Amino acid sequence: MDFAVNILALGVPFSVALLIASLGEMFNQRAGVFNLGCEGIMAMGAFLGFLAPFLVGRGGPTAEIWNYAGILMAMAAGALMGIFFGLAVVTFRAPQGIAGIGLQMFGVGVAGTFFRHFVGGTQSIPGIPAMPIPLLSKIPVLGPILFSHNPLVYVAFLLPPAAWYVLFKTPWGLRVRASGANPRAADSIGVKVNLVRFQALAVGGALAGLAGAYLSLCQAKMFSDEIIAGRGFIAVALVYFGHWRPLKITGGALLFSLAQALQLAIQGRGINFPYEFAVMLPYVLVIVVLAFSRENLLLGPTALGRPFNREIRT
Amino acid sequence: MRRFLLAVAFLAVMAGVARADGVIRMAMIVESTIDDKGWCQSMHDGITAAQKELPGRIEYSYSEKMKPVDAGSAVLQYVSQGYNVIIGHGAQYKNLMLEMAEEYPDVTFVFGTSAEIGPANVFTYMPESEETGYLSGVIAGMTTKSNIVGVVGPVDGGDAARYNRGYVLGAQAVNPGVKVIVAHSGSFGDFVKAGEVAETQIKAGADVLTGSSQQALGALRAVADHRDEPIWWVGQETAQLGIPEGYKCIGASEYNYAAVIVDLVKKLDAGVKGGECIALNFANGGFNFRFNDDLKAMWEGPIEQKISETLAKFRSTPGSIDWSKVDYSKL
Lengths: 314, 331
Hints:
heterodimer, A: 314 residues, mainly alpha, ABC transporter involved in vitamin B12 uptake, BtuC, 12 helices, 0% strand, globular, B: 331 residues, alpha/beta, Rossmann fold, 2 domains, six-stranded mixed sheet
């Protein structure tokens, strides 16, 4: 029983960065743009989330405030990078895959360079501590799994229903979906497709920045050039895994992270099983689920990856 | 074509030029940074310490963040500038170093960790880190209250494999009933995953952890998050004692690469340009160990005495730990 509870209690916080980043990527893709630069935005978010409490708040009485200032900086930078990406792929209609790889390299490179300049070597920060919810955290089994985490974990799990509501119940969500599904039809009824795509990229970027800040402020409580370590790409895969739906994406992020927690526990049990396979387990799981998904569920928004030019009939 | 041939010939001539003033021009290539409080910093610190030990003998440059595929151009740059010792600090540079060694026989290439004996102009180095791991294991085995201790490894290879197995043997030697949890993050630099591994082990009851390579900092950070709980760390890098998380670190070993570099210079002076593996161990000064003075109450007495005895044994009989017999599946 303890074994299962531990895995669940670990899997929940492990999933947060992936969950937030993949929800952001979902908005991008729902609007018709896939952003492989998510990793780069997360790297910048992780750096900026770390920088404010490190430079200004460290050891001071207002350290907590600077943690949250770091989060805001990370989200703002993420939104700006999303808009910057939009300039390349929406305005100038650059190939989205190539531009995304460029953004990934740019983000990781700039974050690493700024880190060396402003911080130097590896340093840690107190970060955002866990905030167990009174009474609820004492409930057997459920308490440690759901109510004993840091504040961003709770925020992260409020995001999927919020994202669902925004996407499916608001006029803006409808415009986003229309821009990704049939931009020409959307345009014909007055939707400013490119503007909506910019907005979705800004939202997606802000969420990717937040995901990065979670890693540096809540999980590692330090920054290094390799802090994202491919999680941005996994977030992109999880959007396909979750069929562009917030609740399914949440399931995917949780499944991936629980597999991660499980493989670490398996290794620790000394089971005669090559650890390399254990490390691969979560990734293999994603591939297997994608491979066995019904083809029609993996098609995604019809105009995904296609730039919109109202002057050209496509 | 003629210009190209002239350039190649010039590079080849420059490569063979040794400084008449006895200064060794040494360049190091690392995949991380020289201040990573781990693997790369220890070699950088070793070279700068050797520079102080041998004043005026070593001229030193380094290139950071070099992936093996990019490192070739950096090596060529150094060779063309007349550097006569090139160190690729990591086993990932093995192929590059061997290829370059064949092309530039007058330049000495060095890489590690590797116990292989290379060609006549290639030195390898191998930390016998089962010794440092054993010391950490002794401390862990004598400190644990839960009788469960953990190891956060990067990958099961090189000196990390030796360190981790040494840790198992050390813990079992002083506490035969101890359970040792071994898990690998699969990466040398993923702090986040190392922290996840550490957190998993703590949830499983481990109360003394250790880890190797630069990823271990993430695990130490996870241990430090348990501020008011009796969960402790034993380090493989003494720099960990001086960081904010150091209050959890009972003691730490470190690689003293100065011993390797000084030995290397002596061999070069004697006309040996390679074909040997230089070991690091306590006997040749390749390792140091230090307790955390702020945690004296934890180690003073039996632990201190056991560590002194073990160190004395290592200094008199290096290579006494048979680390290769440890089978994780039987723990």
